[in-house]
Specification:
The chain has 279 residues and is an alpha/beta fold. The chain contains ten helices and eight strands. The radius of gyration is 17 Å and the shape is globular.
């Protein structure tokens, strides 16, 4: 996919395309190559560039960063039959990308939809994850959110992808959202396809990872936000109550746009957690 022209673009983030069977996954790679590897997963409808700014600036000197675009998002391809995608397809893409890059073990953090993928990856490939970070996410969406995802899944089969900008505006509402976010929303959302958005909505709607939470042995960071309307706070209760080795950090003055509104603070929380020595 050729880069598009958007105003106020953040700096380019070096990366490469990785072929994973039916998908072509774009993976940004930068940072301290002699340090631990930290993979960051983005949310629904955006791409890995959401970690630009304070997050990248704070984490890049401390870790080797891997930041993929999930299938159907950003610079990655939209494979055929997106209505049949399941969460396992996203997990398999990551495993094959790591195989291609010859990276065996990583720290893994995911935001929103990326948190579902990160949790699914840790459950399917426990030996490949050192520590796990889950930001503004859940193991299963509440029934109300699932109904909304069903509407989105159907609507985006016919609606133009640009409609996602209206949806994102509602999901990201909350205190502290910087006005600069509006300048890059076209860039963050401008690579969407109908299949990518619809297929991801269906996969999230069907995802239920609650059964394996008690068996998760990774040190896990759970980050929640008081004013999150996309993933309500109560949706994370299963994560907090069931994961045996969980550290919880709650932002009282943030919403779902946590990485944009509190990027520096979130980066410090994540850097401290992923830099800890093993107990």
């Amino acid at each position: 996919m050729e880069p598009k022209d958007f105003p106020d673009l953040p700096p380019a983030w070096p990366g490469a395309q990785v072929y994973t069977g039916d998908a072509r996954i774009f993976v940004r790679r930068s940072g301290a190559h002699d340090a631990s590897t930290l993979m960051l997963l983005h949310g629904w409808g955006v791409h890995g560039g959401m970690w630009e700014g304070p997050m990248r600036a704070a984490l890049e000197p401390k870790f080797e960063l891997l930041v993929p675009d999930l299938r159907g998002h950003g610079y990655s391809s939209t494979p055929q039959n997106p209505r049949r995608w399941e969460l396992r397809d996203y997990v398999d893409d990551l495993a094959r990308a790591l195989d291609h890059l010859k990276i065996e073990r990583i720290h893994l953090a995911g935001y929103s939809m990326g948190g579902f993928v990160a949790l699914g990856f840790a459950q399917a490939h426990p030996d490949r994850v050192e520590r796990l970070g889950l930001v503004c996410t859940a193991a299963r969406h509440p029934d109300k959110v699932r109904r909304n995802l069903a509407v989105a899944e159907a609507a985006f089969k016919v609606l133009p992808p640009q409609t996602m900008q209206w949806v994102a505006g509602r999901l990201l509402a909350g205190p502290g959202v910087p006005p600069e976010l509006r300048k890059v929303m076209g860039w963050l959302l401008g690579y969407n396809t109908r299949g990518g958005i619809s297929g991801a909505a269906g996969a999230m709607r069907r995802a239920d990872l609650t059964a394996g939470l008690n068996d998760l042995q990774h040190e896990t960071l759970l980050v929640t936000a008081e004013h999150d309307v996309a993933v309500p706070r109560y949706a994370s209760h299963a994560l907090l109550e069931s994961i045996p080795r969980v550290t919880h950090h709650h932002f009282d003055d943030a919403g779902h746009a946590l990485a944009a509104s509190h990027g520096g603070d979130l980066a410090r929380v994540m850097a401290e957690f992923f830099s800890r020595s093993a107990p």
